[in-house]
Amino acid sequence: MSVACDISAVKAGALSKPEGEVRLAAVCQPAENMPQAFPSGMFAYTIPCLCWWNSHAFFKACKPLREFAPFFHDSLLIWHGTEVMRISLRRQCGSSASQLAFSASEAVANAKALYVQRRYKIQKSMFLDVREAFGSALTSLTLRTSSSPFCLIALEVQSVNWQMSTNRWAHHTDKFSSQKSILRRGQSFQFSINFNRSLDTREFLKFAVSTGPYPSESAMTKAVFPLSNGSSGGWSAVLEASNGNIQTISISSPASAPIGRYTMDAQISSQGRVSSVKLGEFILLFNPWLREDSVFMSNHAEREEYVQEDAGIIYVGSTNRISMIGWNFGQFEEDILNICLSILDKSLNFRRDPSTDVARRNDPKYVGRVLSAMINSNDDNGVLAGNWSGNYSGGRDPRNWNGSVEILKDWKKSGFRPVRYGQCWVFAGTLNTALRSVGIPSRVITNFSSAHDTDRNLSVDVYYDFMGNPLDKGSDSVWNFHVWNEGWFVRTDLGHSFGGWQVLDGTPQERSQGVFQCGPASVNGIREGDVNLDYDMPFIFAEVNADRITWLYDSNTGKQRQNSVDTRSIGRYISTKAVGSNSRVDVTEKYKYPEGSSQEREVFQKALGKLKPNASFGPTSSGRLELEEREPSISGKFKVMGLLAVGKEVSLVLQLKNLTSDPKIVTVNMTAWTIVYNGTLVHEVWEDSVTMSLDPEEEAEYPVKISYAQYEKYLKADNMIRITAVCKVPEEAEVVVERDVILDNPTLTLEVLDQARVRKPVNVQMLFSNPLDEPVKDCVLMVEGSGLLLGNLKINVPTLRPKERSRIRFEIMPTRSGTKQLLADFSCDRFPAIKAMLSIDVAE
């Protein structure tokens, strides 16, 4: 006697300890030589897992089989085709699951050996009974052993091979110093699952991917999908190869999937039950290499620069003296990507509505805007606290940072408390790291003579008194330079023509939608004056193209008078690093038409009209127009004489010219103030007054000399001094002349003393000479560079005597080949921040 079943699923398996219930995933079929007494078309049974399995309980649960009790008292045979599975209910406990198949004619001869090997009780009479029942149809016998009786083994995942090296190379994430699987959306990746046995044709696999704390399919933060024949545009899985127990599978994600941390599970349908097992985790990033991705960048060289380059140049200074500093973006350094994803998870948006926030991370404009809010700490305990006071106690002078890596790691190490302190280029450098790390192409932009317009009237008001003192009056200001970022992506919300570079600014200047965040604002839209579009277009338009209005304030009467309007001085030399080199590229024409052109003024009028529809004749009142029409009778400017260096006398001349054919008597009041680069006044260091007589069309000069003793105590790390002259001709409006000068620091030199090779120590030398006639003390050298050092190197340098030359050697250990950038910051009591940068070619 026997039971005829379809046990194709059983044949591929083994036996395991029963849990919950035992499923006989078999449908009985009539067999050609089946005994007549057998009830055909029998059943698909689910049998409760009975207390350690006993035959009496089994028969009670299986009513249709009770008539076969004598046979099943010792063992159970499930027969199909030419194979028999025999399970003894009286056997000893066996070893781990295994299988041995042999023909029926060999069964008796091998029974004893099998018993010795597997301690499995097999009776000769049972085999004879089987042969008698089925005769010639029985040609083979499969015997299986297990640690427990009567339960088909579950399909289990033994291990997962994420094929990290292959996938990361294909997805352009091989530079990340991480053990995690880092992938880019819209692009397939392969991995292999090693099961405990091979899959049967009646077993099915599905995969589930999820991101965020409350994943859901409706929000596209969760997807469940089976093995299929190809990509459907959404999440999909394809079986690439099957080799025994190992299944190689290709997974594709949609080009619009949210970026972030993902978990992937396998859902296994086997023997009538569905089980789920976690396969692992991966990180999904934006994909600038994929045409369908909204951050797609077609130019290979630009992708390499704006996504893959981990060091760069930031331009600082003033319109009269543009200088550059190196910055270590370090987006591939260990833990940086994880920290940048944590920035998103710490945002106000996530804390208020995590489900919606995670779902919206499919959109680069949303991610960029959140990052711009979180880089500063004003609303949300973000990464950096800003400080422009000149007093940096309790933190670090912003000028001393060399890059983003230390900042981001300090933020995490402190329990995500703001790092002190940052200023605009520090915010921009750190935001650039975050953007590139998540896959948004980005670059750092510097705008010289940058307006800060607080009232959306596209003009900035600056104030002086009649003695030439600049006044901290009013909320507008003009920064010597301001640094922000551009991210590259399409703007589906605005239209095709507004895609490409988008301004994002992490510096906390003005609130946007109640939060200190800025952008994304289309650069194309800014150029065309479309200030009504999202996001923050009026503010950024004013930064590059506002009118500057000068006011004179009478401290005796408390009255102020508009002095002049300058339509050309705001937004000059807008700069960024060139692709593939350290050259400066001027991108001013991307932001506005040429100053003084009719197009530039037309766009200005268009922008003002969108903000102030009732302003029918332009940006000014009639009184302001009258002032513009009155030509001054004199002109003036400051000219630098000689070198400008810390420790030296500042020497300039005021050049005045009579523009008329009449003689002029000019009263000149002058001051000099140390300032911070954003226009914040620090301290007056010099003043002078003089009366000058000018013959018709004569040009005369008056010397200005400011000694080191006058400015040394008040000079900040920016090394900036603002000299102002208010020039008064009787019965005429005053002429205000202004010049900001930047004093040079002494030179810091870096030299490589050895050939640089990967994983070989390299000696580097720093050279510095004290130019002062006094000692400099509290000297510290900070060095860093992605691919050259793990972390930062801090060296305390002994006090330097007057005119002494210091030579410091240190060692670096390159970890990656290619051209790498070594950055150094030297600080002491007299020189708060001296920078040096060195490109090093590292061989394998």
TrEMBL record:
Active site feature: 424, 482, 505
Cofactor binding comment, as recorded: Binds 1 Ca(2+) ion per subunit.
E.C. numbers: 2.3.2.13
Pfam families: Transglut_C, Transglut_core, Transglut_N
Keyword Membrane part of the UniProt annotation: no
Cofactor(s) needed: Ca(2+)
Transglutaminase-like domain mapped to chain residues: 416-508
Catalytic activity from the UniProt record: L-glutaminyl-[protein] + L-lysyl-[protein] = [protein]-L-lysyl-N(6)-5-L-glutamyl-[protein] + NH4(+)
Keyword annotations of the record: Acyltransferase, Calcium, Metal-binding, Transferase
Alphabetical list of Gene3D superfamilies matching this protein: Immunoglobulins (2.60.40.10), Transglutaminase-like (3.90.260.10)
Keyword Repressor: no
GO MF, one example: protein-glutamine gamma-glutamyltransferase activity
Enzyme class label: transferase
InterPro entries found in the cross-reference section: Ig-like_fold, Ig_E-set, Papain-like_cys_pep_sf, Transglutaminase, Transglutaminase-like, Transglutaminase-like_sf, Transglutaminase_animal, Transglutaminase_AS
Binding site for Ca(2+): 545, 547, 595, 600
Family statement: Belongs to the transglutaminase superfamily. Transglutaminase family.
Protein name: protein-glutamine gamma-glutamyltransferase
Organism: Carlito syrichta
